[in-house]
Amino acid sequence: MSIKTNVAILLAAAMTPSLASACACGCGMFDVGMPGLALPSSQGGSINLQQTFLDQNQAMQGNSKIPLSQSPDQRINTTFTNLNAQYQFSRDWGMMAMIPYWQRSFDTNANFGNGAPQIVNSKANTLSDIRLMGMYTGFSPDMSSGLIFGAKLPTGTYTAPGLDRDTQPGTGSTDILLGGYRMGQEHHWGWFAQGLLRSAVSTRDNYRPGDSFQLVMGMHYDAFRSSTHVIPTLMLNATIRSADSGINSDPYNSGLRTLYLTPGVLLDITKHWQANASLYLPAYQHVNGVQLVPKQIASAGITYNF
C-alpha cells in the first residue's frame, strides 16, 4: 500500500475533531486534527467532508454507570460537520485546516434536586473553533514519520443561550497543538501511531479548558484492496483530559480518561475519491464527578485527493 493510503488511514482514524465527551465537558474526546485526509507522497492535497454523530445519554460517576435521575444534564446530542483541507508543498512541509460546524441539542433538568423534573432544551447550530496546523514530514524519504503543530482558534461562539460554558461550541481560548505520527508496512498489514497534546495559552471570561492528550494506535489490512477496493481498519483511541479551571468552569465535573475500540473501513471509489466510516465503541471510561458519555460514536466522510 502506498504512503498516501497509509496516512489517509492514520488521519481518518486518529484525527477526529472536537467530539464532546461529557455533560460538563463539551470539548474534545478526540481533539486530534483532521479526519479523512490523505498526505501525498509528493506535492498535492485533499479536501474532506466528514460527519460525526454523538449522542451522550448515559450518566457516569467515576467509571460506573448511574441513572440519569442522578445527573442534572439529561442528554447532549450533536452532529459535527467538518470541512477539512490539506496541502503538501513539498516532501518536507505541509499544512491542514479544519472548519467545524456544530448542531447541538442539550437537555437539562432545571429543577434538579427540587422535586419533579423540569426538562429544558437548548440548541446551537453554529461554527465551532477553526484549526490551522502545519506538518513536517522530512525525517525519512518515505514520509513515514512526522511532526504536527498548530493552533485552535477562538472562532466558535461561547455565549449560546442555555448552554454551560463547557458545552458551548467554542471554548473562547486559543490552544496550541503539538504532536507526531509514525507508521509502517509489513506485507498486507500496516500499522500506525499518532499522538497530540492540546493546551490553552490564551483564555477569555474566566474559563480555561483542561489540557488533553490523545494517543491513537491502529492497523489496516490491505489484501482485499485490489479486488474489492475495501481496506479494513482497527484502532485504539485513548484520551486523557484534565479538569477545566476558572470561575466559569466546573472543575469537579470535568476531565476524563477514555479508551475506545474503533473498527472502520476505507473504500476506494475512484482514483481521486475515497470514503471512510468508523464506529467508536467504549472499552474504558472514567470521568471526574458526574458526566454524560456516549454509548458509541459513528463517523463517516468522503475525501477528494488531487
Topology:
Elements: H1 3-14, E1 20-22, E2 25-28, E3 44-62, E4 64-66, E5 73-88, E6 93-109, E7 119-127, E8 131-136, E9 145-152, E10 174-186, E11 189-202, E12 212-221, H2 225-228, E13 230-241, E14 256-268, E15 273-305
Antiparallel strand pairs: 1-2, 3-4, 3-5, 3-15, 5-6, 6-7, 6-8, 8-9, 9-10, 10-11, 11-12, 12-13, 13-14, 14-15
CATH architecture: Beta Barrel
Number of helices: 2
Mean pLDDT, rounded to whole units? Answer: 86
Oligomeric state, counting identical vs distinct chains: single chain
Work out the radius of gyration. 19 Å
Low-confidence stretches: 1-10, 12-34
Going by CATH, what is the homologous superfamily? Answer: Autotransporter beta-domain
Description:
With 306 residues, this protein is mainly beta. The protein has one domain: Autotransporter beta-domain (Lipocalin). It has two helices and 15 strands. It has helices at residues 3-14, 225-228; strands spanning 20-22, 25-28, 44-62, 64-66, 73-88, 93-109, 119-127, 131-136, 145-152, 174-186, 189-202, 212-221, 230-241, 256-268, 273-305. An eleven-stranded antiparallel barrel has the order 3-5-6-8-9-10-11-12-13-14-15. A two-stranded antiparallel ribbon has the order 1-2. A hairpin with an 8-residue loop joins strand 8 (131-136) and strand 9. It is globular and about 65 Å long. The two termini are 18 Å apart. The model is unreliable at 1-10 and 12-34 (pLDDT under 50).
